[in-house]
Amino acid sequence: MIINTRPEEVSKKIIELCEQEKIESRHVHMSRIEFLSGSKKQQIYTELIENIHTFSNIIFTSQASAKFGSDLFNLHPGLLNSKQNIFSVGDATKKILIDNGFKSITPSNKSSQGIIDLIKEKFPGKNLIFCGENSNMNLQNAFKENMNEAVCYKLIFDINQLQNIPKSSAVILIYNFLTFEFIYKNLVKGLIENKSFVLASERIKSEVSKIVEETEILNKIYVSKSYMDEDMLDKAKEII
């Protein structure tokens, strides 16, 4: 069995893939997406309205970030100019932007590394990264002083979801370190030891290795080619 842990708001594609491939799966939405609101949201809006003209490239790292950015741009139609490039990390993110009236560039390698390579090769300039608190930091580390980030949402975890993880062996898909940390710290040890984990990046694995001491758990941790749902499932299918 494969366990998807993504928030329900961004699980549509992986649910469809599991159904199409007739993969035994359970969708345990360990967290939900909460956009910044009130004064925090207003502060981000104000900063973006004042400074967005200084960026050559606008990058959306997730469906949630695309939703936040689209709402802002539609509230202020003249905010972007024709010389700015909009990038989306994958097809689902691209669709959110299209549905809200914005075209974007998606690399052939649909991942943060794909965006990094494309921008470094063809799109010089300052980069604005729309992301969540759970960002894998690949883009930020790659562009360093030549970027700013707009952190526009966070994950709210639900401890009651842990009861939906089966006692039997399973492969758990982990898209960010915070989700692994939440499961590891709150799920009883006996239920963790018979699970395998597919992680979305080497960076997550590096963070996991800092908190996990049990060899039996570390030996059942695998890294996907990318965080795309197709790649996560392909790696999981190698294990089950």
What general form does the structure show? Answer: elongated
Beta percentage is 15-25%
Number of strands: 10
- Which CATH architecture of the largest domain would you pick? 3-Layer(aba) Sandwich
Q: Report low-confidence residues grouped into runs of 5 or more.
A: none
Query: Looking at CATH, which topology of the largest domain would you report?
Result: Rossmann fold
Mean pLDDT: 94
Give the N-to-C terminal Cα separation. Answer: 7 Å
The count of helical stretches stands at: 11
Strand and helix layout:
Elements: E1 2-4, H1 12-20, E2 25-27, E3 31-35, H2 38-51, E4 57-60, H3 63-75, E5 85-88, H4 91-99, H5 112-122, E6 127-132, H6 138-143, E7 147-157, E8 170-174, H7 177-186, H8 189-192, E9 195-199, H9 202-211, H10 215-218, E10 221-223, H11 229-239
Parallel strand pairs: 1-2, 1-8, 4-5, 4-6, 6-7, 8-9, 9-10
Antiparallel strand pairs: 3-7
Provide structural commentary.
By secondary structure, this protein is α/β, with parallel strands linked by helices. The chain folds into two domains: 2-30 and 158-239, Rossmann fold, CATH 3.40.50; 35-155, 3-Layer(aba) Sandwich (Rossmann fold). 42% of the residues lie in helices and 20% in strands. It is built from eleven helices and ten strands. It has helices spanning 12-20, 38-51, 63-75, 91-99, 112-122, 138-143, 177-186, 189-192, 202-211, 215-218, 229-239, and strands spanning 2-4, 25-27, 31-35, 57-60, 85-88, 127-132, 147-157, 170-174, 195-199, 221-223. The strands form two sheets. A five-stranded parallel β-sheet has the order 2-1-8-9-10, sandwiched between helices. The protein has a five-stranded mixed β-sheet with strand order 3-7-6-4-5. Strand 4 (57-60), helix 3 and strand 5 form a beta-alpha-beta unit. The model has no long low-confidence stretch (mean pLDDT 94).
